[in-house]
Amino acid sequence: MLQMQAWRPTVTPAALGAINHRVPDPFERLFLQEYQKVVAIAYRVLADRTAAEDVAQEVFLKFHRSHSPDSERASGWLHSAAVHSALNVIRGERRRAQREIAHALDPARPAIASPERVVEEAEQRREVRRALRRLPERTAAVLMLRHSGLSYAEVATALGIKVGNVGTLLRRAEEALRKEVNRATPE
Amino acid sequence: MRHLSDGTLRRIYDEPLALTAADQAHFDECPDCKPRFDAIANDARATAALLRVPSFEPQARAGLSVVQARITREETARPPRWYERWLDRKSPRWRPMATPAIAVVLAAVLLTGLGVSGVAQSLIRVFEPRQLQAVQVSPSDFAQAGAPLDYGDVKWLPEPPKLQQLTDAAAAQAQSGLPVLRPASLPKGVSGPVSYGVVSHATGSLTFDAARLQASAARAGVKVNAMPSSIDGSTLVVNGGPALIEVWGLGSTAETMNVPTLVIAQTRVPTVDSTGAGTAQLEDYLLSQPGVPPELAAQVKAIKDPSTTLPIPIPKGLATTESTQVNGTPAVLIKAVLGAGVVWVKNGVIYAVGGQLTPDQVLAIATSLH
How many helical (H) and strand (E) elements, i.e. helices and strands, does chain A have? Predict the structure, then answer.
């Protein structure tokens, strides 16, 4: 149950900008508007905060080199780049295991039940990422875009498909992922 | 009569308001589409659980500094040439997957993965609300409730629900998987900033244990009815959340910060599955326990279909309720001295809009959400 007493006023980036009376340039505006989403997509794929922020920053750099921040296709491009780049990372990387466990056991993280549970959770996340690696690119992309919180319209724009087809692709992608996970862990 | 496609059913799990009026009418009447929707919703929940990651709210300002520093460095160095190849991967490798009916397997994997192995085959859905009903409660009835009784073994799989406070709509949407809803316009007196609360999805289980209940009742000095043998040993698996709460008008001064002017909340309907006891048995038993006011028990028992009706507690004397509609969906309008609220359930999501507003204002906001 939500307790209203728990709410505290917080300063938002928008409010800070207003205080500074500084008009952000178009790239800055785009960055502040999309960064959370781009990181969320990469993080959902990678389950690693540092790696997700690295991917997001690379994506924005690449965007900056080749596109105008005023383009109306900017958001779709960023989302698409985020998911494909992050999927490329998990397809290529094999040394994440140790880093994930080290991250999970980081004493700076909020307290969790037990080290065994932490290792188990990290192992499950790794298993899911192994399954993701085996999925066709677009199947994995639709799955991760939607599960990182993008609306159906945003997923459609990022993948260049009709919004009416997102549900069908997503449904199949979820079945495909579960099948891969089941295959790897019978019982 | 053409049934809704899997894709459409999958979409309304995420975006319940996206359904056309004709499809909604079909969905409301069709005996085939509802169970298909339930199976698809279960798969979606199971996948969300698989893909769950610990919460994380990245700092955009810090990220911007890093990227701006790199841009400055690059602009003083050579122009890069290798970049486009990296992202232009339009590989048309998509192929339709075979679609075996794996709903049962999914549920089983989820549950075994979460540590309740062996029970999936025998689960029966005992509670999944599709409609709402107000029940009057007197706050004083609960004031004297004694020590909580120990009904059995409680497990959170993997952890209890957590409330996160966020300031960013995109992060709130990403964390909750629910769309951030906006009214078409805000009534006078309601203004930003908007704060977001996200309650994570959680699965919990309770395994009834007659011996433990008797022992705790003896310790607390309370008399409890004997637990029927059909309930003893059976497990309830409760699925709740995620929930997304949007709050307007938390002022920055000490006097105003705890009084929001508008709250829009949505949560996936909670579900309860049981390995043994059915809805009627559980209801009879739980309502006869000490601490449950007889008047409340009578109201809950009077609910015609307890497995699909969510009782909304209304404090007696402080608020009144009446039936209304939000875009054709039955809803409960709550009128209180300080404000009003409206609650409705649609396509597996419970919505609530309320605040220091008139009933008309609340209804106008509710019908304009998008």
Answer: 9, 0
Write the CATH number for A73: 1.20.140
**pTM, rounded to two decimals:** 0.56
Cross-chain residue pair A88–B89, CB shorter than 8 Å = yes
Within 8 A by CB and 6+ apart from A77, the residues are A63, A67, A71
B260 touching chain A per CB within 8 A: yes
Instruction: Give, for all 370 residues of chain B, the pLDDT tens digit.
Output: 689 999 999 999 999 888 888 999 999 999 999 999 999 999 999 999 999 888 888 999 999 999 998 888 877 664 433 322 222 333 222 222 211 212 222 222 233 223 232 333 345 666 676 777 777 766 565 444 455 677 788 787 777 777 778 888 888 898 888 999 999 888 887 876 788 888 888 887 878 889 988 888 888 787 888 888 888 888 878 788 788 888 887 654 444 444 567 889 898 887 878 777 777 777 778 777 776 677 777 877 777 777 777 777 777 777 888 999 999 999 989 888 778 889 898 988 889 898 888 999 999 999 999 8
Q: Does B302 touch chain A (CB under 8 A)?
A: no
| Helix ranges restricted to H, B274-326 | 279-287, 294-301
Structural domain count of chain A: 1
Provide ipTM, 2 decimals. Answer: 0.77
Give me the torsion for CA of A172, A175, A180, A181, rounded to 10°.
Answer: 140
Domain that holds residue A74: 25-184
Task: Sort out which chain B residues have CB atoms less than 8 A from A60's CB and list them.
Answer: 63, 67
